[in-house]
Amino acid sequence: MEKRQFKSALIAGLLTALVTACSAGNSTPAAPGLGSTSTIVPATASVDLRSAARFAVLAGSTVTNTGPSKIVGDVGIAPGSAMTGFPPGVIQGHVHIDDGIARQAKLDLTTAYNDAMGRTLNPIKVAGNIGGQTLYPGLYKSTSALSISSGDLTLDARGHPHAVFIFQIASKFTMTTGRSVILSNGAQARNVFWATGSSATFGTGCSFYGNLLAHQSISMATGTVMVGRALARVAAVTLQKNTIVKPGR
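Below the sequence we write its predicted structure tokens.
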């Protein structure tokens, strides 16, 4: 009698365990919601700008401006020393022309640029025109020129305000007239990095978010607005009735 009871109890226990295991195997783990207090580490690490982070505009040779541009953040030039068009342009920040602060920032910009361009972990290939697309956090790699045209680009952080976007562009980066970068679902300008192997140009009336690290020059046509940083390692930053606002940390 005792043996039968033990056997029945054992079978019942095994059946319960089996049902539980099968139920667990068929369930999908719940993803953290937007209000989750869990700490989520971004899959792509941010780029440390170091002392260059204080600048809204940093150039290698010169900063030139036409019209009532507005810069919110510091402006620096090194090793060049020429800056024209201020006023009528307005700078809400400090100006550093080939001084110790500007020279250190340029060294830190080079370090940050090399970091951004040197990333190799799980790159997503992009080419030609990425306008009209929605992209998610990660590392994006173009082996030639890249443009945002024929539509706006949406960067979707999927609810994570610390999500990082890095774009490696082998040569020129272009935004055509009236195009926009749109931040969605918690994406932050301070966490978006555009590293271009040559220069960057913007058409009239563009809206841009992110830190732009150009090997050569950056040129903006009339009315383009940037929430981010225009950082040119070697050559000039050229403005024309633009607004550049350095993002918060």
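Residues 50-245 form one domain.
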